Amino acid sequence: QVQLVESGGGLAQAGGSLRLSCAASGRTFSRSDMGWFRQAPGKEREFVAANRWSGSNTYSRYYADSVKGRFTISRDNAKNTVYLQMNSLKPEDTADYYCAAGTRTSSDSYYYTQAYEYWGQGTQVTVSS
Fold first, then answer.
1. I need a surface site. Which of 36, 101, 104, 122 has the fewest CB within 10 A?
2. Coarse DSSP helix, strand, coil percentages of the chain, rounded to the nearest 5 percent
3. What is the Cα–Cα distance from 104 to 113, expressed in whole angstroms?
């Protein structure tokens, strides 16, 4: 069983930055596929970014079109932590952000919530104009 705990959410003004963290425990973190999703009130949970195991010691990063060029996903295996650096924030980025972990994602499924086995409780991000 994997446990995930997000942190780093809060308030930011448009154009500002936040860095979200997701601390993982319970499994071999280095080989887990990690994702960030977000959900605004009344909306479906949507894909934001993913960091996937793609070789013996390499990873691939993917982004939703809505955040590409503004957000960066990274991981520190020594700390069992994945990050989401969010720059140039927009009010439309306001949502609850969730960290997800999985071992069965693929190049065709990493952007679906169903591809991930474990989820954190979320952290709120609010961006004002």
1. 104
2. 10, 50, 40
3. 12
